[in-house]
Amino acid sequence: MSFILSGRFTFDLHRDVADAVKALGQDVKRVTVDLREAEYIDSAALGMLIQMKAKLAPREITLKLKNGSVAEDVLSIANFDKLFAIESV
Predict the structure, then answer these.
(1) Alpha carbon distance 80, 85 (integer Å)
(2) Domain residue spans in the chain?
């Protein structure tokens, strides 16, 4: 299962993100969040990624991030490479 986030990834999307996590089927074993089209990522968005990982872990679902230029800088500064598998594209 993949989620593609484009434009601004901010607190405004918190309900959409939570709903998407709740809607995942039992057969899902891996989720990829594609940030290549993200133009802006705020600290609330980073928190949402951490919450998503925490909610998926008990269901034994792995979370992977794909980053682009904007996301790469933000994820690197926040040391997310220590928390997530990150694929640079």
Answers:
(1) 9
(2) 2-88
